[in-house]
Amino acid sequence: AGLPPYWPYCNAAKRMSSVLMTKMDGSSWSDLQWRRRIETFGLDDGPVIASGPQGQSDAVCQLGELTDKGRDTTLAFGQRLRHLYVDQLRFMPKIITDADMIYLRATPLPRALETVHQSFWGMYPPTARTASFPAPTIVTRTPADETLFPNDSNCRRFSQLSRAFAQRTADRWNETQEMDYVNGLISKWMPPSSKRVAVDSRPRLSGIMDTLNSTLAHGPETRLPSEFYDKKGREIIDKIAVEEWYSGYQESNEYRTVGIGGLVGDIVERMTGSVEKNGLDGLFEIGGDNDHVGKGRGGERDIKFALSGCHDTTLAAVLSSLGAFEGEKWPPYTSHIALELFRRINPIAGATAVVNSNVAKGLDSKPVDGQEQSLWSMIFGTSKERSARNLPSPRGIARKTMEELNPTEKRELDGYYVRIRYNDRPMVIPGCKSQGNHLEGDESFCTMAAFKSIADKFTPKNWKEACGSNLDEPAFPAVNEDAGF
Predict the structure, then answer these.
(1) How far apart are the first and last CA of the chain?
(2) Among 37, 115, 34, 39, which Cα is nearest to 73's?
(3) Per-residue model confidence as pLDDT tens digits over 91-115
(4) Helices (H) and strands (E) in the chain, counts
(5) Burial class (CB in 10 A: 0-12, 13-18, 19+), 17
(6) Residue 67 has pLDDT above 90, yes or no
(7) DSSP secondary structure of 147-161
(8) CA atoms of 319 and 239, how far apart (whole Å)
(9) Contacts of residue 446, Cβ cutoff 8 Å, sequence gap at least 6
(10) 340-357: per-residue pLDDT in tens?
(11) Could you tell me which residue, 302 or 323, shows the higher pLDDT?
């Protein structure tokens, strides 16, 4: 379709930086500033420098990299967080001496980490940090342990399930009038090996959507022919892609469990850790110095705010698993989810722990390959110092189900409420609509007990074990297992 293979939207390539050891005993370190260029094959198969549409060679993006537009929007997102949580709510301090009250997390994909960098800078620019401010801690995981996005590469059962639901979508849609309409628009640009656009064509329909959305986010030099932007065609593509990727979360408890249950379990554990003030809110991972964890470097005993860089598939998976994604379109750039924890202060509900929004895409990260970035923000709370080499086993509520809690533990959750906001819209979880499961007068404020009860049903006891289970079992449940209850 004439789309340039290399896009000149990554000026970060002109100012790359790497950490260097400058003495062999490791006592001295510095930074190396360098410029990146991308090499590719020339016409005769010899090496040439990749260049953009106008011959640009020094700002060319890698596939999936956070572009200048993505950096701009993630920086703006951080500024929005500051306006809300610092200036308006006064929940977070105006100036910080360290970041050990903030849980920062990112997936292994570089654009997710860069999203966290940009957002943190927007929320706490240098003018809001003291001169002695130490490097903030950012938590990552190895790909094999990653649950901040649906990990089909490292979870065999989830890979099975996702392929089965994708195939069902292909069987439903490939020979329909809607797909015929899409083919009438763009099939002439499909490769000879896959002339018809389909859910499972090559490129896949969802891949075409990714590219289309990414071109719309950037300049006119990287645009597709006008037929790709037909309004009806885009609506059809979006509807089918959402079904392919997210219907499993809405219909299957096992799909929810292996797909996103590990992350939801982490969120609930941090919330209950904030309620119990027992150290399970994230400070054990963030605080401490010189290989010790626990108390923050500034004496912090709790995590007040958490921000995680993830992806569009994270946001939609969480919302779908909670029954709050019905009728929604694919998450656009700059999307985010806020999970907010409130405590009722008699006689009115007041926010003592306000979770902020956004994660993964979280913010618009505008990667070149069209896979949206996202950012996930939340707020939790408290902790006691522990050594990384001597961590006691988890105590308190943590990952116990509501049925496993004793009466005292259940009472600890009284007066706490959870609200989810998706792109600043409060979302209602179906199971929270029942009498007694929400704050009187507002169904979007789910009681902590009701929220945990819903999340418990798809929180795995052992995610890796669940990923290796049921490999010979059918992919679809005998009856629909509706999400959000």
Answers:
(1) 46
(2) 115
(3) 999 999 999 999 999 999 999 999 9
(4) 13, 17
(5) exposed
(6) yes
(7) -SS--TTT-HHHHHH
(8) 16
(9) 417, 418, 419, 429, 431, 432, 437, 438
(10) 999 988 644 433 333 332
(11) 323
- What is the rounded distance in angstroms from the CA atom of residue 18 to the CA atom of residue 409? 48
- Which amino acid is residue 217, in one-letter code? A
Structure tokens given for 317: 């998976």
Q: Which residues contact 290 (CB under 8 A, 6 or more apart)?
A: none
In this structure, which amino acid lies at residue 391? Answer: L
Q: How far apart are the C-alpha atoms of 341 and 116, rounded to whole Å?
A: 21
Please report, as a single letter, which amino acid is at residue 194: S
Two tokens, residue 299: 């004496």
From the list 262, 308, 393, the residue with the least C-alpha distance to 115 is 308
From the CB of residue 200, how many other CB atoms can be counted at a distance below 10 Å? Answer: 17
As a whole number of angstroms, the distance between CA 120 and CA 78 comes to 6
* Residue 419 to residues 129, 259, 410, 416, 425, Cα–Cα distance (Å): 30, 22, 19, 10, 10
Tokens representing 213 are: 């959305």
Q: Could you tell me the CA-to-CA distances from 405 to 263, 282, 343, 436, 448 in Å, in that order?
A: 21, 22, 20, 19, 14
The CA distances from residue 41 to 45, 75, 287, in Å, are: 5, 35, 47
Distance CA 286, CA 116 (A): 15
Q: How far apart are CA 299 and CA 287, in angstroms?
A: 9
123 to 92, 93, 128, 301, 349: CA distances (angstroms): 10, 11, 9, 21, 26
Nearest to 382 by CA among 265, 269, 278, 266: 278
Per the DSSP assignment, residues forming a β-bridge with 425 are 422
C-alpha distances in angstroms, 224 versus 120, 161, 208, 228? 34, 33, 11, 7
Find all residues with CB under 8 Å of 146, minimum gap 6, and list them. Answer: 107, 108, 154
58-91: b (≥16 Cβ within 10 Å) or e: ebbbbebbbbbbbbebbbbbbebbbebbbeeeeb
